[in-house]
Q: What sequence folds into this?
């Protein structure tokens, strides 16, 4: 069963899909959002981008500022109320919507917000969940002639339970060689404000992860969260490592005709 | 002789020091890695026992349900426990805090005119600094668990719940034994090697005279069964069994959350605990005793039921699940933060993920910077929740504790962080304001790259580069190209 599954396409109802690009992708990684649009259009989904969207509120929630998060969550449910699915290229942001929005709504003391959150949260899916569970595809017709290793980010793995969906999608990409990452399920050390509040520990974790990534011999490190990749990419470029970081969506959007 | 955690610095400061100790990181990675592997193999074995392959998860649910039932009827369970203990000849004491509990134990010791006690490994007596309190009364408390003995002889602090000397390797242990054993009893043989069996042999010889001489023992309890008044101690070395059977007087200090309603409900917990803690199907020694058995074992049995912040934790709707903890330390062994910093950085006998929530819950937040720093000592990766045998959702409690820290510190001049969060929330609750901010993202990153030493940035840039500055935000691109449908004059997507 599709999580939060609503109606299928019928004569009366066309399934409405919105992209939640996430604040970090919006500001720093437009190419990841563009890749999701390219990919979904290729698969026949006319994805909308409601321009009122901002952020999932996770930075505030995870730092302890629940009250500050209330208007951000309110904006989220208002923005996406009319969509059947909200797709996001981030396991962490999807996890925040599905597991933390109710926490914030309870804090607000507004029963209307709680009801709205209960409606919107389960319909928010991480990209690989939407592709595999809703569209039912594991081969998205991509071509990417590189050796890659995949880091399953903690929130996609343990908050959402995306399981082997991203791996299945990657294994079907033509030209791609997928190398196992030892200790893959261990956290990279990003952790939002943890990366700054406990910078030394965060860096120690990132350096260990980067070493394992380099040891695989892969050209590309792929993950479903640009926040973790910003941290790991920062460590890798500082070390002058020959590994690039690329978001899962960008690999899945690549074709023989297209660039990448 | 043992140290104390009082006056420890905040977690990030203590962690920085620990991270610089390469030997410590090596010891920890090796030890936690070994236990992790053993635990996972046993979970696979449990899951393979039924066709559905979900037996371990069912066991976790059963264990959590038992502890939850006990906690939700705690008052009734404790009264029943007390009645059954008294009916079986034990004396029950109630202690509000550490000072009361320590005074009770000292009083019993003095009533019997003893100047030494032997101890079973117990977290709760460390929590209340019982050894130090007894020492102040002129009573020596001898730790008899091998790892606790290493910590005590070394004048050291425990760094792990199950393996308190996990930060020491065998060469360091040999050194401690050679230097210190003679000060408190039988010295280690001069030709002591760092072979584990030889080291254990020296500890056995050293401890034996203490077991045979001591007239009073102090223990904790892993479980206290209400409907029979039975205490349970689970251990590996047999030192506990010695302490629980040889001396005339036995005092057990028991946290009130240790109560289990019935013997039947002990079943899932006894299956979960050894698999989660030592990675064994069953622990070598399980001792149970119900008050006094005439002519067999201690003839005077005391039980001190301790609160020390537990009712405070119980009143916390989100945090109370931490009281389900059975002190297995699986969360420590899977924690990537603990593996790198070790236990001392947490400044408590309860380190690791469980310590990061239990200390603030027991002590309250808003009045000690060290305690308030603990809920932030996590990347929220969730490995602890996944490993916890009684399903304590540690990440959710951490987030809730962070909110409590922020709320407790509100008022007065707002911190830089609070101002940043307010500004962030203002920008992130309105797309127009966010779009305006994003126009400066490229400038901001270019600026930050030139000034990496700015406060707030240093933490990031000391070992990590900043990402490339963006040329255009996603929303600006969408607007300019109608979501990529309008031909892009610049040629291609960026």
A:
């Amino acid at each position: 069963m599709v999580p939060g599954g609503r109606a299928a396409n019928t004569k009366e109802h066309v399934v409405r899909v919105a992209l939640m690009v996430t604040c970090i992708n919006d500001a720093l990684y437009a190419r990841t959002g563009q890749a999701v649009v390219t990919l979904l259009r290729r698969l026949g989904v006319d994805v909308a981008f409601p321009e009122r969207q901002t952020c999932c509120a996770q930075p505030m929630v995870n730092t302890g500022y629940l009250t500050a998060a209330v208007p951000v969550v309110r904006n989220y449910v208002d923005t996406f109320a009319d969509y059947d699915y909200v797709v996001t290229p981030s396991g962490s942001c999807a996890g925040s919507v599905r597991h933390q929005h109710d926490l914030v709504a309870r804090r607000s003391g507004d029963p209307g917000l709680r009801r709205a959150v209960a409606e919107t949260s389960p319909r928010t899916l991480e990209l690989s969940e939407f592709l595999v569970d809703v569209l039912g595809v594991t081969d998205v017709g991509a071509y990417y002639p590189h050796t890659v290793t995949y880091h399953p980010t903690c929130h996609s793995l343990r908050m959402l339970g995306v399981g082997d969906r991203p791996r299945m999608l990657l294994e079907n990409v033509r030209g791609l060689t997928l190398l196992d990452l030892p200790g893959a399920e261990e956290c990279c050390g990003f952790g939002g404000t943890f990366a700054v509040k406990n910078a030394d520990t965060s860096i120690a974790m990132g350096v260990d992860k980067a070493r394992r990534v380099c040891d695989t011999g892969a050209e590309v490190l792929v993950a479903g969260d640009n926040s973790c990749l910003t941290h790991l990419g920062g460590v890798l470029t500082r070390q002058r490592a020959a590994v690039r970081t690329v978001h899962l969506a960008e690999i899945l959007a690549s074709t023989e005709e297209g660039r990448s | 002789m043992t140290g104390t955690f009082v006056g420890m610095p905040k977690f990030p400061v203590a962690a920085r020091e620990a991270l610089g100790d390469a030997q410590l990181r090596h010891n920890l990675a090796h030890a936690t890695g070994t236990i992790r592997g053993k635990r996972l193999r046993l979970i696979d074995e449990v899951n393979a026992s039924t066709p559905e392959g979900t037996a371990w998860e069912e066991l976790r649910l059963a264990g959590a349900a038992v502890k939850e039932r006990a906690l939700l009827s705690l008052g009734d369970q404790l009264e029943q426990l007390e009645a059954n203990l008294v009916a079986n000849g034990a004396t029950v004491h109630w202690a509000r805090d550490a000072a009361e509990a320590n005074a009770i134990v000292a009083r019993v010791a003095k009533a019997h005119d003893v100047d030494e006690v032997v101890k079973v490994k117990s977290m709760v007596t460390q929590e209340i600094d019982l050894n130090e309190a007894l020492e102040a009364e002129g009573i020596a408390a001898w730790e008899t668990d091998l790892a606790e003995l290493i910590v005590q002889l070394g004048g050291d602090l425990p760094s792990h719940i199950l393996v308190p000397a996990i930060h020491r390797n065998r060469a360091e242990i040999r050194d401690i034994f050679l230097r210190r054993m003679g000060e408190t009893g039988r010295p280690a043989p001069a030709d002591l090697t760092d072979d584990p069996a030889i080291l254990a042999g020296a500890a056995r010889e050293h401890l034996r005279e203490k077991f045979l001489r001591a007239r009073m023992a102090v223990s904790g309890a892993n479980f206290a069964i209400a409907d029979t008044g039975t205490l349970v101690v689970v251990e590996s070395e047999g030192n506990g069994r010695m302490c629980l059977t040889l001396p005339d007087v036995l005092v057990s200090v028991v946290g009130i959350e240790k109560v289990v309603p019935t013997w039947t409900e002990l079943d899932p917990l006894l299956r979960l605990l050894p698999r989660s803690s030592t990675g064994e199907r069953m622990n070598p020694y399980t001792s149970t005793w119900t008050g006094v058995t005439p002519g067999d074992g201690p003839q005077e049995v005391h039980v001190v039921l301790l609160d020390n912040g537990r009712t405070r934790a119980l009143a916390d709707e989100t945090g109370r699940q931490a009281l389900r903890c059975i002190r297995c330390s699986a969360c420590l062994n899977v924690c990537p933060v603990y593996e790198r910093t070790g236990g001392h950085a947490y400044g408590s006998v309860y380190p690791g993920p469980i310590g990061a929530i239990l200390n603030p819950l027991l002590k309250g937040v808003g009045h000690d910077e060290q305690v308030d720093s603990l809920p932030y000592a996590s990347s929220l990766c969730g490995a602890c929740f996944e490993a916890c045998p009684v399903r304590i959702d540690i990440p959710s409690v951490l987030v809730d504790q962070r909110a409590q820290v922020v709320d407790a510190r509100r008022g007065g001049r707002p911190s830089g962080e609070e101002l940043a969060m307010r500004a962030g929330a203002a920008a992130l609750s309105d797309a127009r304001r966010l779009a305006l901010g994003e126009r400066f993202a490229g400038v901001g990153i270019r600026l930050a790259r030139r000034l990496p030493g700015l406060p707030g940035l240093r933490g990031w840039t000391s070992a990590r580069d900043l990402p490339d500055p963006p040329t255009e935000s996603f929303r600006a691109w969408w607007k300019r190209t109608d979501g990529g449908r309008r031909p892009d004059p610049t040629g291609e997507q960026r």
